[in-house]
Amino acid sequence: MSPLLQLRQVDKRYGGLHVTRQVSFRLDAGDRLALIGPNGAGKTTLVHQISGVVPSDSGEVWLRGENVTRLPQARRVRHGLARTFQITTLAPHLPVQRQIEMALFEREGLSASAWRSVDSYPALTAEAQELLGRFGLRAHAATATEDLAYGEQRLIEMALAMALRPKVLLLDEPMAGVPKGDGARLLSALDALPKDLGVLIIEHDMDLVFRFANRIVVLCEGAVLAEGSPDDIRRDPRVRAAYLGN
Ligand SMILES: Nc1ncnc2c1ncn2[C@@H]1O[C@H](COP(=O)(O)OP(=O)(O)OP(=O)(O)O)[C@@H](O)[C@H]1O
């Protein structure tokens, strides 16, 4: 079976800076793949290359058997790829449920003007409420996003990505800036993601990485330093020297 996502020798330079170097790996249905590495290793750039925010200089990105290397972001989303962003990009004044409904409208190709009569699409309203429930946000349906705690805003980002019904979900540092006390809710949301979804996560919180991932790719100076199971990676002397420490 073809992988859900496959990178083949993907490369990116910014001027003289070689940011990602011949990166190859695959992601299959049900995978929980963590991309880890020191600051500036190229992790976010690589996720941008996968999602189409940044074009690759060379190499290929394949999504569910199709070469999407030259396709724009929106086409990749339609092909089953969704992502959350490291920086919260939510419309702050909108009530939470409206945000989700907006994402559902976009997925269904409904126009912005139709959105004014959002209440005449009961199936989408019901789906939005189901998503809110799944992420433990139902009590906040009518709350403006800006009034929620940061950890809850990260949950909305995840719900928005899942509203697109992706096959592959890219999570860019879901724990960044989340106070320790709110971490448990995010962890259980991660655990509750559909089992057959392929998840690629960038995360600096190693407790989360080693608890969540079934495979880990270590990026160092733009290149893959190591790839393997969490146990392989924990024991790998090169990874310990470059990133994990002793
Ligand atoms: N648009 C850009 N123009 C020039 N250089 C860039 C650009 N984006 C990233 N870089 C550089 O590329 C390198 C890799 O950055 P990137 O953000 O991908 O690393 P990262 O592994 O995600 O780091 P962190 O863990 O700190 O988020 C860095 O040296 C960064 O300064």
From TrEMBL:
Keyword Cell membrane belongs to the record: yes
Natural source organism: Pseudorhodoferax soli
One Pfam family per UniProt: ABC_tran
Nucleotide-binding recorded as keyword: yes
MF annotations from Gene Ontology: ATP binding; ATP hydrolysis activity
Annotated protein name in UniProt: Amino acid/amide ABC transporter ATP-binding protein 1 (HAAT family)
Taxonomic lineage from the root: Bacteria, Pseudomonadati, Pseudomonadota, Betaproteobacteria, Burkholderiales
ABC transporter domain boundaries: 5-246
GO terms for cellular component: plasma membrane
